[in-house]
């Protein structure tokens, strides 16, 4: 027997109200609710939907958010450290400077979302889907993108040190001015990536990757060579 979906709309909610709702075990659909700076750490929000909510500065640290949906939320500075977001969906919205350190993102989806300056250190990301995500200045060291297809993901100026891009495909993505110390790119397809800011001497970091003739021409142009 499926749980009843309860709806709450157009309200500012306190910790006690959210804790009480969490204890019911029923999924809730929150629309246009305000949870600014509310501490919801360690609570259970399995299969909940937060739509057009204000979550600025809210804390879901260690919370259970399996199969939860965040849709078009304003969530700058949200704390999701150590949260279980398995099979969760982040669809649209602003999660700039979000803290997802150590979060579980197994089979999660992040799409059409702003995550400028977000911290995704030590996350578990097997089966993660990324599409149209702004990761400028984000922190993603040691992140595994292996065999992933990344579509319209902007990593400009991000910390991608020691990341694994082996066998990945980057489609209309940006690696402009990213930090890529000890990252791996064997068999990666970078023909759809913006490599702006990369010098010829930096290309050793892309050893084993495939680039386009146009990209090669730009790099060789730094030596005064022309490619026809």
Characterise this structure.
It contains two helices and ten strands; from the N terminus they run E-H-E-E-E-E-E-E-E-E-E-H. It has 228 residues and is mainly beta. Strand 1, helix 1 and strand 2 form a beta-alpha-beta unit. It has helices at residues 15-23, 213-221; strands at 6-9, 28-31, 49-51, 69-71, 89-91, 109-114, 129-134, 149-154, 169-174, 189-194. The chain folds into two domains: 1-139, Pectate Lyase C-like (3 Solenoid); 141-228, Pectate Lyase C-like (3 Solenoid), CATH 2.160.20. Strands 1-2-3-4-5-6-7-8-9-10 form a ten-stranded parallel sheet, with no helix packed on it.
Determine the mean pLDDT: 92
* Count of structural domains: 2
The helix content, as a percent range, equals under 10%
- Order of strands, main sheet, comes to 1-2-3-4-5-6-7-8-9-10
Secondary-structure blueprint of this entry?
Elements: E1 6-9, H1 15-23, E2 28-31, E3 49-51, E4 69-71, E5 89-91, E6 109-114, E7 129-134, E8 149-154, E9 169-174, E10 189-194, H2 213-221
Parallel strand pairs: 1-2, 2-3, 3-4, 4-5, 5-6, 6-7, 7-8, 8-9, 9-10
Throw out a few tags for this protein.
8% helix; Pectate Lyase C-like; mainly beta; 228 residues
What is this structure, in a nutshell?
The chain is mainly beta and 228 residues long. The protein folds into two domains: 1-139, Pectate Lyase C-like (3 Solenoid), CATH 2.160.20; 141-228, E3 ubiquitin-protein ligase SopA (Pectate Lyase C-like).
């Amino acid at each position: 027997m499926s749980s009843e979906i309860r709806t709450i709309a157009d309200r500012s909610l306190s910790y006690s109200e959210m804790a009480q709702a969490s204890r019911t075990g029923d999924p809730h659909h929150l629309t246009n609710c305000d949870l600014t700076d509310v501490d919801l750490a360690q609570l259970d929000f399995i299969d909940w939907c937060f739509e057009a909510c204000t979550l600025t500065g809210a804390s879901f640290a260690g919370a259970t958010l399996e199969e939860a949906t965040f849709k078009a939320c304003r969530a700058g500075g949200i704390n999701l450290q150590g949260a279980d977001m398995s099979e969760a969906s982040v669809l649209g919205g602003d999660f700039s400077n979000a803290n997802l350190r150590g979060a579980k993102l197994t089979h999660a989806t992040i799409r059409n979302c702003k995550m400028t300056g977000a911290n995704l250190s030590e996350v578990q990301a097997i089966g993660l889907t990324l599409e149209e995500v702004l990761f400028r200045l984000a922190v993603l060291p040691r992140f595994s993108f292996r065999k992933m297809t990344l579509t319209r993901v902007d990593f400009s100026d991000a910390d991608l040190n020691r990341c694994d891009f082996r066998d990945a495909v980057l489609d209309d993505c940006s690696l402009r001015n990213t930090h890529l110390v000890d990252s791996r790119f064997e068999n990666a397809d970078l023909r759809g990536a913006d490599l702006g800011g990369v010098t010829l001497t930096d290309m050793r970091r892309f050893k084993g990757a495939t680039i386009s003739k146009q990209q090669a021409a730009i790099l060789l142009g730094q030596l005064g060579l022309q490619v026809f």
